[in-house]
Amino acid sequence: HHNYLFHLAGIRLAPKEKLEIPVLFMPAEMKIYKAVVVIHVMRKNDENWPYEVSAESNTNLNRNVTVAENGEIQGILWIYPINGTPEAPQQKSVVIRCQARQRVEQRVELLLFGVIPGATALPDAENSAVVDTEESPNTPEVTDGSSATLEFVYELQYQSDEIRSQLESLVGMQLVEKEWDKESRIVTLVFNVVFAPSKPMRNEAAVVIQCTAGGLWRFPLVFIATEPEVDDVINIEAVGLNKESIVGFKLTSQTR
């Protein structure tokens, strides 16, 4: 991990004045980057705050101040940790098409480029995929840096709560295959996507995949439901000119 150091010296702030600190993140690889922004505030004219920090003082206080020789507070520190997660460029949309009132199962193959095995692990999640990078079947699930497994967490995200309410019960997604090519550093994840629309629609979602070693990939999905088949053809036979013809037919509700 690299430490990024920039120094803003001698900036004077009036009471209640705001200071914006720009942070630029330009990841070179798909891995976790960490940095810390430290803000050190001192009083003007080299004055100190007349408050003595003793050994018994609160641990956080001791850590967040700089102390002058006479024990008074010379400066106050604010420390902001920054965790950078690189995100791959957005991929082309995968289109899943089905006629309304039908059900389709589609195999979707997603390629993750630039994967680097690393030592950091994410907390366990419901949807996680472990990719073995060696032939040994006894490789532990989460990499410890020396073992060669990669763990991924995936999630189906919707653009809004309204789209979620429309799509969530109609779409299912399950990981069925994973493959890791060491030379090209490409991981292939194969999903089985089920789409069973009840009415014509066009909605978008995205599969978001995160690797424990760092890196995030986003794959847009477009769900298109076309018009359903005609239920039945009703033939009405005329009994004569200007006379009514009546045909009866039953409608059955699919829900209560």
From TrEMBL:
Q: Name one GO biological process term.
A: sperm axoneme assembly
Q: Which GO terms describe its cellular component?
A: cilium
InterPro entries membership:
Ig_CFAP47 (IPR058952)
Residue ranges constituting the CFAP47-like immunoglobulin-like domain according to the UniProt record:
87-226
Task: Tell me which PANTHER family the record gives.
Answer: CILIA- AND FLAGELLA-ASSOCIATED PROTEIN 47
Protein name (Swiss-Prot/TrEMBL): CFA47 protein
**Protein source organism:** Phainopepla nitens (Phainopepla)
